[in-house]
Design goal:
This protein is of the alpha/beta class. The chain has five helices and seven strands, in the order E-E-H-E-H-E-H-H-E-H-E-E. The strands form two sheets. It has a four-stranded mixed sheet. The chain has a three-stranded mixed sheet with strand order 1-2-5, with helices on both faces. The chain is globular, with a radius of gyration of 17 Å.
Length: 173
């Protein structure tokens, strides 16, 4: 996972919905003091399988993140097959060029390459998210009902533009 504007890279056991939101939570914990005036976070996503606008576990965790951080969250998705417009893809290609042809034999080698790469003259902050991330976690329709009630979906692009407003006082941000 890459947080582009702040160039934070997170590596974990599996790329899952929980991994995505855990990384976002760690990142916001690091930068929230510097950005106290921010009340709304717009997140541009590639509509991948673990962070799509229909992924129940991802949406549940994003609602929890909004409540934890006190931020209004707007999820904006690039249309399918439009990765050329996504700056994260260009940043990611820099890392792929850095480790091109290398044997990625262990986590430390991967983290080392990531720490040494640069994009637009800056090196990223590289972190490893501890723990095992399970794939395939899904909510039932009944479990999803209160989550879906919290999502404000665009009338014209309901899968590609979603706003989540916090309802609890921020405890983590």
């Amino acid at each position: 996972m890459v947080v582009s504007g702040m160039r934070a890279w997170f590596f974990g056991s599996k790329e899952t919905s929980d991994y995505w939101v855990d990384g976002l939570k760690v990142w916001w914990g690091r930068v929230s003091a510097e950005f106290r005036s921010i009340r709304r976070l717009v997140i541009y996503l590639d509509n991948g399988p673990n962070c799509s606008g229909v992924r129940t576990q991802f949406l549940k965790r994003m609602v929890e993140f909004a409540d934890w951080s006190g931020l209004e969250i707007r999820l904006v998705y690039y249309p399918p097959y439009h990765s050329k417009y996504n700056p994260v893809e260009r940043c990611w290609s820099s890392l792929e060029q850095k480790w091109g042809g290398a044997l990625l034999t262990c986590l430390e080698v991967i983290l080392g390459y990531a720490r040494r790469m640069t994009w637009k003259g800056q090196s990223p902050t590289v972190s490893h998210l501890e723990g095992v991330y399970r794939e395939g976690i899904r909510l039932t329709k009944a479990e999803m009902k209160p989550i879906e009630a919290r999502l404000e979906r665009s009338k014209t692009l309901p899968k590609y533009d979603i706003t989540i407003r916090p309802v609890k006082a921020a405890i983590g941000g």
